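call fold(seq) -> tokens
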Amino acid sequence: MSVQWSTLLVVLLSCLTAASCDLLGDVLTVPLFEVGGLWVNATVDTGARLVRAVLGWPDLASPWTYVAGALAVVAAYYAVVLLFVPINRVRLLGDVGYIPESRMSMKDMVNVVRKRRQVGDVPPVYPNGWFAVLESRDLKPGEAKTVSCLGRNLAVFRGEDGRSHILDAYCPHMGANLAAGGIVKGSCIECPFHGWQFRGDDGKCTHIPYCETKHIPDMARVESYISLERNGFIMMWHHAEGIEPNWEPPEIEEITRKEWTYRGRSEHFVNAHIEEIPENGADVAHLGQVHGPIMTAGVDLRYTYSKFWSFAKHTWNGQWNQDTDPDRKHIGILELLHSIKVFNWNLPILDLKVTARQIGPGLVHLEFDSLLFGRGAFLQSLTPVEPLTQRMLHHVYINNYIPTFIAKFFLYSEALMVERDIMIWNNKRYISKPLFVKSKEDALVARHRRWYSQFYTENSPRIKFQSDSMDW
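ret:
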């Protein structure tokens, strides 16, 4: 096999050398205006020689030819995945953030930790605001899906006109789940049990196969929810008092104008109260402790301070503030500067300027600017699927001219840092009255808690029990 490769290389070099020599001799003896034609002819001749050499190389009688071909196909496949296919990193509850004991499976370990952990005096479990219920790309026209979140079971469907709708999942007739076999017809969804049709805009029943339209009672309806579709997410407005939205998530213009393109996603499930996750944005003191060790040190906090990786580290300098505009009081802003040091030498080419906007209780737009990699954004959505279980999604968008594998590296790095936090969140107790010391760092966390309290109202639901199983 090595002899064949050597032969092919010699043929290739011979072709190139011969073409160059022939061309050089001709160039010296012809007028200048004919030189271009000589280059074209020489290139065509060299290409023909190369094709003949390649086609004549495989020895179809040798098994090594087929082994090499198979390896080449596999290598090409993984090269395409690395260079062009968006990343999709999914970690379910129990995949990360727990320390196994004895011979228990990770699933058993999750259940043990959830049973014995002291929950603490937690705030209401479903704050008021906008929450992502589905990713836009996961719902095609004419498709319906069941989603469980915020203490509700929902039927989310996309009408034939492309608009998305969110209704209560259960038909008021006899309780069938509209999304479990229901058929989308126009902008309505048809119950799979008896064919009742409900309008997506307001939940009103518009058709019953065995009843005249004029006899359909006005109470024949399901609850509909205010929704919008923006930045790649289908979002629902939740408010415990039934108040309509007084703000909307902003549209990211670079995504709308297609200056930034989608390059991948990560998905994590976290066993914690929802407020503890965005609180990290104001907890600048934890950055050096949890996220200081270089990302290659892994996500298990027992080993991130390994001496093997001590030659490199991340450094962070951050400040959190509430937006000063009264119309944007629902937005908190983290300004962050990130750098990497290797043997105590800063690598300025890898410096990152980050502006993270916490928009309400469940959305974060984290925009980054890098000298080497250009501009982009992580879009984070955080949605309670149970009182103390959160589904966290990250989408990464980046400048069109940046290769996909670089964007994938960005998202992978972000995911590793999140998974370090998950080890804290999954095992901690919520402290309603923390033992703060007199410091700027603890003062920021206290400010964040006061800011976040605006998303709770009198009827915001509080936890009544903790699920004893992870089989949600």
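The longest helix spans residues 2-27.
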